[in-house]
Design brief:
This protein has about 90 residues and is mostly helical. It has 4 helices and no strands. It has one domain. About 50% of the residues lie in helices and about 0% in strands.
């Protein structure tokens, strides 16, 4: 297991306290991004170029977060339509 840096720990703490802290974190790690979008899917709005796993986590947390993802991957789009069908 990779050791977490002090900075990453501070970022995680900030995001756990308030997911909107992601807006003020420059170059957040994927772990920090995931923590933010798992608390509130709309936090993806403040993440430039989120990975597919971050996009999926945001979508799972809140289906409407898709509108904040600039370039969703095909897998994310498919998951959105799958979730939409379950309503």
């Amino acid at each position: 297991m990779k050791k977490m840096s002090v900075t990453e720990r501070k970022h995680l703490f900030a995001v756990y306290e308030n997911c909107w802290a992601i807006e003020y974190i420059k170059n957040p790690s994927e772990k920090v991004q995931l923590a933010a979008v798992r608390r509130n899917g709309w936090a993806v709005w403040y993440i430039s170029n989120p990975s597919e796993s971050v996009q999926l986590a945001a979508l799972e947390q809140d289906r409407s977060s898709l509108k904040f993802i600039n370039d969703p991957t095909p897998k994310v789009k498919q998951r959105y339509y799958d979730l939409k069908k379950t309503l």
